[in-house]
């Protein structure tokens, strides 16, 4: 429940990156022993991954932001539908299981709220490394002796497929070259973690990745990178609903990971100041309309598209928001329209005609980033906005309402929602 119009100001601290943690956690299947992953956010998706790995025999302790994992024993090599349906990233167990144990049974993730999300590249990549894979009864069944290094050229740059193949190739015999590997910071973090565990990976952070397989890995500790999407969301919140003349300081982030977003914020007229691990933003007197097209890193992230649209809803003029990663990711549009936005969507292109004001209403979250965009719109709207099904938010934003309250927002969680 949000009462809009309170100008945001002050400082907010960013948590660890959900999508990095979700890749680091299954990597612990690759070597027995104890791991400490610092700066791990306390989120529903992290709990889902913990429960899945627990069902395979691993032990977990999460206190504050330190995640301890005991991966001494792996007793099961399965990711059942009950887990995978809750979170697609469960598929990250496939590569490590087949590389280390020679077999895996992983439920095929279905579509998601905004359309189909295939995993063909994960499967083809692992097949190239020598795994035998059948898809049957909704499950991926993989078998292999020791995997063998190969050259893999991804048609599409995929974060998940890069992660899965990387985690498999580190234990394969010989050299694997991954061409068109995803260069998202979360994949760089995974590569760095694997190197700490004894993997040999060249070209980390770029392309191609060249992996020389080793016979065995060992446990390692890691501090998770800051969540660039959470940081971007707070920056857009400040641009949209910041107090005029005041600043919002987004702390414990990595400005280098956010340049696609911060450049666009400069274009709308916001005053930006950058430090080593913080970004300060002063909202513009009037928001200029600025187009964005999502693309792979270091382009504008698809995970910031919905939030950007909330900002453009109140811009002066017309902007075009194009999603080239997920063509159907526009579930937030009808909800933003309920708040008074003027948006039309044709194929993967949204035309946003800026309006003078948004007005509070009841709206429905459909997925994680859509929920964030509705919260941002609610902060700027006149009157009260009720965002339903906020459990989507808890998948990816740690204590978002508390962090926004810290910036002066009038937002509270109303108990009693079922899901
Ligand atoms: C990850 C992120 C998600 C983000 C997305 C794109 C995690 C847990 N999730 O998802 O938040 O929105 O990256 O930055 O890190 N594709 C195929 N075949 C495949 C795999 C992907 O065609 O086998 C296509 C997808 O349909 C999409 C594109 O590749 O168009 C990129 O998807 P991908 O990078 O794989 O996304 P995820 O890893 O699922």
Top keywords for this entry?
419 residues, alpha/beta, four-stranded mixed sheet, 31% helix, binds uridine-diphosphate-N-acetylglucosamine
Characterise this structure:
The protein is an alpha/beta fold and 419 residues long. Helix content is 31%, strand content 23%. The protein has helices at residues 18-27, 44-55, 81-84, 94-101, 120-128, 159-169, 185-196, 228-241, 259-268, 305-313, 332-338, 368-380, 391-394, 400-406; strands spanning 2-3, 10-13, 34-38, 59-63, 66-70, 78-79, 103-107, 132-136, 139-143, 151-153, 175-179, 200-202, 209-212, 222-223, 248-251, 271-274, 278-282, 292-294, 318-323, 342-346, 349-353, 362-364, 384-388, 410-411. The strands form 6 sheets. It has a 4-stranded mixed β-sheet with strand order 22-23-1-24. The longest helix is centred in the middle third of the chain and has 14 residues, at 228-241. The chain is elongated. The structure holds uridine-diphosphate-N-acetylglucosamine (UD1). Uridine-diphosphate-N-acetylglucosamine binds at residues 19, 22, 88-89, 117-122, 156, 158-161, 182, 186, 302-303, 325-326.
């Amino acid at each position: 429940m949000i009462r809009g119009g309170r100008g945001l100001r002050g400082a907010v601290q960013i948590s660890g990156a959900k999508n990095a943690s979700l890749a680091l956690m299954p990597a612990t299947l690759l070597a027995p022993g104890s791991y400490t992953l610092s700066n791990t956010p306390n989120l529903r998706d992290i709990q889902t991954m913990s429960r899945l790995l627990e069902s395979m025999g691993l032990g977990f302790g999460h206190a504050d932001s330190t995640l301890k994992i005991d991966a001494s024993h792996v007793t099961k090599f399965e990711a059942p539908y009950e887990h995978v349906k809750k979170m697609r990233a469960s598929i990250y167990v496939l590569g490590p299981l087949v590389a280390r144990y020679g077999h895996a049974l992983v439920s095929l993730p279905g579509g998601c709220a905004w359309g189909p999300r295939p995993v063909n590249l994960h499967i083809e990549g692992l097949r190239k490394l020598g795994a035998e894979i059948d898809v049957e009864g909704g499950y991926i069944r993989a078998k292999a002796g020791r995997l063998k290094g190969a050259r893999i050229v991804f048609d599409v740059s995929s974060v998940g497929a890069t992660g899965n193949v990387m985690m498999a190739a580190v234990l394969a015999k010989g050299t694997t070259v991954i061409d068109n590997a995803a260069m998202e910071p979360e994949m760089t973090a995974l590569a760095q973690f694997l190197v700490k565990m004894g993997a040999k990976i060249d070209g980390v952070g770029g392309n191609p990745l060249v992996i020389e397989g080793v016979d065995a890995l060992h446990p390692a500790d890691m501090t998770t990178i800051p969540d660039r999407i959470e940081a971007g969301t707070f920056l857009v919140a400040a641009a949209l609903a910041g107090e005029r003349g005041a600043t919002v300081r987004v702390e414990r982030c990595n400005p280098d990971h956010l340049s696609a977003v911060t450049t666009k914020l400069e274009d709308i007229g916001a005053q930006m100041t950058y430090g080593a691990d913080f970004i300060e933003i002063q909202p513009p007197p009037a928001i200029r309309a600025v187009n964005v097209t999502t693309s792979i890193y270091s382009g504008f992230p698809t995970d910031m598209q919905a939030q950007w649209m909330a900002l453009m809803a109140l811009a002066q003029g017309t902007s075009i928001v194009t999603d080239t990663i997920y063509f159907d990711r526009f579930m937030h549009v009808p909800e933003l329209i309920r708040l008074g936005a003027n948006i039309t969507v044709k194929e993967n292109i949204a035309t946003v005609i800026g309006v003078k004001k948004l007005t509070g209403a009841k709206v429905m979250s459909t997925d994680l980033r859509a929920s964030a965009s509705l919260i941002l719109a609610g902060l700027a709207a006149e009157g009260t906005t009720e965002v339903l099904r906020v459990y989507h938010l808890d998948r990816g934003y740690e204590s978002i309402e508390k962090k926004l309250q810290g910036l002066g927002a009038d937002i509270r969680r109303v108990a009693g929602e079922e899901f």
